[in-house]
Amino acid sequence: MAADDIIRGYGEALFRVARAEGELDKVEDELYRFGKLLEDNYDLKRALSEQNVAHADRVKILEELLSDKVSPHTMGMLTFIVAQDRARQLPEILEELARLAAESRDLALAEVRSAVALDDDQKAELTRALERATGKRIELKVLIDPEVLGGIVAKVGDTVIDGTVRHRIEQLKEQVRA
């Protein structure tokens, strides 16, 4: 079975379970955020996926890290994936779950990275702007990323909209060179 099929299969299974338990919104959000944390933390990803680390120890790492921060449903799903030796693919599996959840609501998933937290008005305004730019109804996921220097980076599907100060400076440099 191809890696993409495995990722899709796990994402669909998690989606169905979360929806059946009536916890889709909460679980999907918690899992998505954990997936992004894992994506950026090589040591944690390695600790959860090392074959020479016992399953019980991997689960213990999850429990110590998340037990008071996520719902029991979320913890159960993460434990299951790690026990199945799929921790290396966890970010992709969780992103697939988020995509399916947004799709089930007839929305496109938009991941936005910002250096600072956005308030509700900013989120609403950003959602409207992305909807105008893409022609799609948007489900917004805002992630705080200290490496973003002013502005935001938005990703909707394969489209990336870079409104950061760094990007604007790079554009100015290109214009000056031309």
Element string (H = helix, E = strand): HHHHHHEHEEEH
Proportion of residues in helical segments: 55-70%
CATH class membership of the largest domain: Mainly Alpha
How would you write the strand order of the largest sheet?
2-1-3-4
Q: What is the beta-strand fraction? A: 5-15%
Task: Please describe what this structure looks like.
The protein has helices at 3-20, 24-39, 42-49, 55-66, 72-83, 90-104, 120-134, 165-177, and strands at residues 108-114, 138-144, 152-156, 159-162. It has two domains: 3-102, N-terminal domain of the delta subunit of the F1F0-ATP synthase (Peroxidase, domain 1), CATH 1.10.520.20; 107-177, Glutaredoxin (3-Layer(aba) Sandwich). α2 runs antiparallel to α6 (90-104) and α4 runs antiparallel to α5 (72-83). The protein is globular and about 55 Å long. The chain is 61% helix and 13% strand. 26% of the residues are buried. With 178 residues, the protein is an alpha+beta fold. It has a four-stranded mixed sheet, with helices on both faces. The chain is built from eight helices and four strands, in the order ααααααβαβββα.
